[in-house]
Amino acid sequence: xxxxxxxxxxxxxxxxxxxxxxxxxxxxxxxxxxxxxxxxxxxxxxxxxxxxxxxxxxxxxxxxxxxxxxxxxxxxxxxxxxxxxxxxxxxxxxxxxxxxxxxxxxxxxxxxxxxxxxxxxxxxxxxxxxxxxxxxxxxxxxxxxxxxxxxxxxxxxxxxxxxxxxxxxxxxxxxxxxxxxxxxxxxxxxxxxxxxxxxxxxxxxxxxxxxxxxxxxxxxxxxxxxxxxxxxxxxxxxxxxxxxxxxxxxxxxxxxxxxxxxxxxxxxxxx
Length: 271
Prior knowledge:
CATH class of the domain at 86-264: Mainly Beta
Strand order of the largest sheet: 1-2-3-4-9
Number of strands: 11
Largest sheet: 5 strands, antiparallel
Order of helices and strands: HHEEEEEEEHHHHEEEE
Low-confidence stretches: 33-41, 60-73
């Protein structure tokens, strides 16, 4: 009996070895085609030929350009209105009112070489605040020459460099006399405030001329409703004429959202 069992065990072990070998051979047979397939060289498909693409010209986009600055023909063709005219202390004033804004001017007698000077007042009778600047004033001569007003800093520097101390003081006294005697006008933010500020800035008497020049020269100022300002507006005018008048032409004032055009005829009258 023992011999029989040993024989069966040996036979079963043999079958198991045969079955294992068969599995190994089957796995190898299955793996070989797969490996060959994986290791086989891959063929690249030819790419289709490139076809030339049509090039379209770049499209031009039109953008709105900013309005060009005002040119001489525009200034020359602006309509002229008849201003209100009156005389005060020997000066002839012209006044225009647009949209509640009143602009008034008169030429001052020449005291400073190479400059023509206007005494200007602006009253804000509108419901909003506006800023008034010397650059708002432009003079167009009859021959087409445009004179731009010069800045306050340039005026003060030029007066101290070119004019004598006596001439500047005389100009200040003349300005005061004409301003204080101007009827129906009281400046709320003009010469008097500038004079007080200049006196505080130029304490030394040697700088009295600088204080005088700073006081009379118009500077940029914001006017609230019912406010008014005044000042001397300077135009650089290198002429051989002794009068140094602006002469015939148009004074164009673009301020407070309005445009004012004053016609001048020949030599501006001074008394």
